[in-house]
Amino acid sequence: MTSARDRPTLEEVARRAGVSRATVSRVVNGSTTVAPPIQEAVRRAVRELGYVPNLAARTLVTQRTDSIALVLPETATRVFSDDPLFPGIVRGVSQELEAADRQLVLMMAGSAASHDRIERYAMGRHVDGVMFASMHGMDPLPGTLARIGMPAVCSGRPLAAGAAAAVPYVDIDHVTGVASAIQHLLDAGRQRIATIAGPQDMVAGIERLAGYRQALRGSRHRSIVAVGDFTRESGAIAMRQLLDDDPALDAVFVASDLMADGALRTLREAGRRVPDDVAVIGFDDAEFARYTDPPLTTIRQPIIDIGREMVRLLLKLAEGKPVEEALILPTHLVVRDSA
């Protein structure tokens, strides 16, 4: 086993490459001011000697950790459930960070104590920037970090007062997506269109419900609403509530595919045929949506692209470049057998 004192030093690399220690340091730390032939000589010496940079010393020199945090304000049980949001976001973030040679630090904040720990970690500059996804309520942390100069980006418009102006975000056009779903149901002649909304402490839940109500406004159709929490079981429970409240309903827009899958189960148990008796439209276009019974009509949102665009925004911020306040990605209707 090689001890710390046996490891090659910058001085040894410099002697092997025939350059100064300062030149080696600049090359190792990613400077572009060194001539290409000298850079190659230094890299060859690094490979031959097996030199490994001291990351702590490198951070002191560059003022960078080359690590980016992704904060999910959820419990581990929720993050590692079958909700397609989390693997989709992580996949997109990971792809873009890998291309930029940066390291992902995944952090979950499912309690007040974990939230405080993450705040201390970020404010201690252990990462070069922080991304947030699946945020609930008026979380002040993104705005707090932005005000102290820590690059921060959110997935979805921040709800905390002032945070939306201070913290750039990537989102989708929820309202237009929902409008296309409701119009599809109206065009099919559906008369009693209900919705299972998402949690009203999350921007996705709020805006999809607003999109549903806006799409029905001005028509002869009244709003019929139940609320879930983006889980399959909550969709099943909400569907039972809707059937109890209005047995004559003939369509339901559901604010996530997981909840829609739960709603389909409840409709089967109640003897309602989909789409003959009740049409169902979800939101997400998760992988499993094409395999539900029947295959689910849904609104596709580009979850992986959201993760990628969050990284791109954050890296621009970290480099001091100007960025747009909001990047809104499109959605579109995917028609299958359920509606």
TrEMBL record:
GO terms for molecular function: DNA binding. Residues 8-62 form the HTH lacI-type domain. Transmembrane segments: none annotated. It comes from the Bacteria. Keywords: DNA-binding, Transcription, Transcription regulation. SUPFAM superfamilies: lambda repressor-like DNA-binding domains, Periplasmic binding protein-like I. Coiled coil: none annotated. InterPro entries: Cro/C1-type_HTH, HTH_LacI, LacI/GalR-like_sensor, Lambda_DNA-bd_dom_sf, Peripla_BP_I. The keyword Ubl conjugation does not apply. It holds the Pfam family Peripla_BP_3. Residues 9-32 form the HTH cro/C1-type domain. This is LacI family DNA-binding transcriptional regulator. It comes from Phytohabitans kaempferiae.
